Each structure stands twice: as structure tokens, then as C-alpha cells.
UniProtKB/TrEMBL annotation:
Its cofactor is pyridoxal 5'-phosphate. This is O-succinylhomoserine sulfhydrylase. The gene is metZ. SUPFAM superfamilies: PLP-dependent transferases. It is an enzyme of class 2 (transferase). The lineage of its organism: Bacteria, Pseudomonadati, Pseudomonadota, Alphaproteobacteria, Rhodobacterales.
Amino acid sequence: MTDDWKKRTRAVHAGTRRSQYGEVSEAIFLTQGFVYDSAEAAAARFENLGQDEFIYARYGNPTVAMFEERIAALEGAEDAFATASGMAAVNGALSSMLKAGDHVVSSRALFGSCLYILEEILTRYGVEVSFVDGIDLDQWRAAIRPDTRAVFLETISNPTLEVIDLSAVSDLAHGVGATVIVDNVFATPVFSRAFEMGADVVIYSATKHIDGQGRALGGVILGTRDFIRKTVEPYLKHTGGAMSPFTAWVMLKGLETLELRVRAQAATAQAVAEGLAGDARLARVIFPGLADHAQSGIIAAQMTGPGTVIALDLAGGRPAAFAMLNALRLVTISNNLGDAKSIITHPATTTHQRLSDAQRAHLGIGEGLLRLSVGLEDADDLLADLRRGLDAAGSPKS
Ligand SMILES: *Cc1c(COP(=O)(O)O)cnc(C)c1O
């Protein structure tokens, strides 16, 4: 049944499991354990875990299973494993499949904690990691070796919104039998075509657009049933990265409105990006929906929409960026993204503070760069607020 449904129907109905009470809204099974009718039934359940048979919430829970089934149906994946946060998902996907001696190739422009896992943790356990500039295919070609086990990348980089050619990188990786693992937050489940483009494993921080209302941390790993149940699940169920049933309920309700929210936010982001492009106080406005984006050809092939995040590079550097932030009255200074509320952050001094000056320069994260996550407010109100901010930032010295 679910297989015939279109995306919007899946978002509302896929994975629903009703209890004997026939509730309309999904129930929160806020229980860590499950009762067995007899000693024999307990023994049998431990021996042969079936799809609807739960034994302990770290292994699985009905509300969590509903979320996993619904997001898998939306993304077109065979299966999914829900996790306590986006980082538990990234760590779970990588650590469950890698062992000492394995080689990984990763793009360099990563979310800070992803970089920490690859650079500091995996290498401590004997995994060799090579970093490349994600948009340079020659670097991927040179780095991927016959013994490469996995490649890791963010389809759209944070915060400079470079878009990696997933199809080309997947072809190179599959040529040596490597698994393609994609952190797909910025592409969103609504606009992503990651599996069609060759990804083997797709990860979301559900904290972002899936919740979309700033309430809960969560994550999910999507892939083949074999990978999820035989590789990911044994690692996560024993190491404790499970999503809580309450969080799963929040995320399930988030999925029902995900497409409506993300499409509305993307349309507003488009209007805001177009409204600000060309302003003399901005050295660059980077948005995948603008025709002048450096990877516009890849975007057209790989994504069905532009996303909800804009990068604004102020010509006046850090003083201008801070003056703008401090003058805003509607857009809030914070570091989440994908939220119903528009949020702005100065990556150089917050999310990317840990990097060295040289690393930031290499990634194009200048002192004037701001990352704007566009929410559900009216585009005119947002533009008025952002223009007030730019007025406060003043004209750059010529
Ligand atoms: C937020 C984010 C993460 C981490 O997710 P959490 O839910 O905060 O643990 C990982 N990757 C990307 C690209 C993100 O934006």
C-alpha cells in the first residue's frame, strides 16, 4: 500500500501503527520495556526478534519504529534507524562499518562535529582519512584508492553552500566498491535526490527541518535493509544511541508538515536572496536558487529545490557582520537551522570557531560571512529586518 502512495501521502500515513484503542494521532509509547505472556514467550522473543516484537527501547520501540518507517518511505529507502541526535547518526553510520586499517575519503567542508569524528576519533582507532575539496573531482579521483571503504560528504556544505556532484563522486567510489555516506541536512528530505544520485547511506539531523520547530534533538540513518539491520543496528543498540519515544513522536508529527514547511521556507529564501542580491554592502549572496551559484548545473540535476539557507558575505568584515546581527529585531541570533523561526549566525566566531584561521580561509569562511536560515515568516518582514541590519552595518570603506 505504502509503495503506491506519493510523497505527501506517505508523510502523513506511512508507518502508522494503531493500538487496540484505534487512536487517530500516533501514540507515544513511553515505555522502556515490554511484557511477555509467559517464560516461553520471553525466550522466543529474544531468540527471534520479529518486526513487531520489541524487547527493550534501546533496541526498538513502537513510536520510534513508526518514525523510522515513515522517513524511510519518504526518502525511498529500504530501512532506517533513528538516533538520539544527528551526531549519533553520523557516528553510528561510520563507526558501525569501519575498522582499523580502513581508508575513508571525505570532503573537508564539514559540520564541526563530523570533522571531529573523522579527524580525531576514527583516526585514533586506526582508520586512515584523506580530506579533499568536495567540489574538485580531480581531488576525489586522486584520493579514492582500491582499498577505500567509504566516502563521506555533505551534499551542500555548511556554511558556504557549495554543492558537491554526488553522482560523479558516487561513480568514483563505486568503482572501487566503497560505500557512499551522505550527510544530507542542507538538501533536506524534500529536495534531495541523494539515493537516485548514487548515495548508499543518507543521514539527517532530524533536529533541523524534520522537527523544524526547535524542540528536540534527533537523527536518522537511511540505507538498505541489510546495512541498517546487520551493520548499523547491532552497533547502535549496544552502544546506546537510540532515539527516545517522545522525540520520535515529535519527529513523526514534524514529518506530516515537513514538505509544506520546507517548500514555504525555500520560496521565502528565494525571495530574500533575490531581494538582497546586488546590495553594495554584500560582497556575495550565496544561495542554490540563484542563477549565479557556482554549481548551478549540478543543483539542477541533483536537487528539486534550493534549500532554506542563504550565506551573506558582508563587504565590511566582522565589524559590519556584528553590527548587522545586533540591529536585527525579527531574525534571531542562534545556530540552529531549518526552524520555523529565521535564525542567523556568524560562523567564524560560533559554529566554525574551532578551526584555524588557515582552515577557515581555505573553506571561504570569512569574517564578514553570515549564515541565514530562513523560517516561515513573511518575506517582506524578513527583508525589512535584514535591510535594517545592512543599514546598521554601513557602507564598506572603499
Ligand atoms: C546539525 C548538523 C549535524 C548534527 O546534528 P545534531 O542533531 O545537532 O547532532 C550534522 N551535520 C549537519 C550538516 C548538521 O547541520
